[in-house]
Design goal:
The chain is an alpha/beta fold and 153 residues long. The protein is built from five helices and seven strands. It has one domain: Glutaredoxin (3-Layer(aba) Sandwich), CATH 3.40.30.10. The model is unreliable at 146-153 (pLDDT under 50).
Length: 153
């Protein structure tokens, strides 16, 4: 999908994220080629906002982070099915999350909902981080603040 096309079936706040950041809306098949492009990138792992309301919080936060960071990275939004299919690659433990990549290599992830200052600090750290191996996901995936298993099988 081209960055200037906002899918009509997205929740309005996710559509705003796409419009304000020029995000690509990706499925699993498109992800690999997009991720391997040169440069710094943020991948937003979205879950169904009807089930995980925190997804909408991140949809509001990401455009603000993008602007705060001087638009120095490209953004992709993974639809829920793609996010669930790709989550095991990056080892985060709570929905929603974003992963930072440079030249396709993992820099780190921020999962769950955080205070604004934590987001800004973590984003700055990740943008300067050396590539590393993503952690293994060894625990059930949780919604931010949830006490029960939220991963669907």
């Amino acid at each position: 999908m081209n960055t200037w096309e906002v899918p009509s079936d997205l929740h309005p706040l996710l559509a705003r994220l796409v419009a304000e950041t020029g995000a690509s809306v990706l499925d699993v098949e498109q992800f690999g080629a997009w991720a391997q492009r040169p440069g710094l990138a943020m991948v937003v792992f979205a879950e169904d906002p009807d089930r995980y309301k925190e997804t909408l919080d991140l949809a509001v936060i990401v455009p603000e982070l993008y602007a705060t960071a001087g638009r120095r990275f490209r953004v992709a939004l993974l639809r829920p099915a793609a996010a669930r299919a790709l989550v095991s690659r990056y080892g985060f433990a709570r929905w929603p999350a974003f992963v930072m990549l440079r030249d396709g290599e993992y820099l780190g992830a921020v999962d769950g909902i955080r205070d604004w200052d934590v987001y800004v600090d973590e984003l700055g750290r990740l943008m300067e981080a050396a590539p590393s191996r993503p952690p293994s996901i060894g625990i059930p995936l949780k919604a931010a603040g949830a006490e029960t298993d939220c991963q669907e099988h």
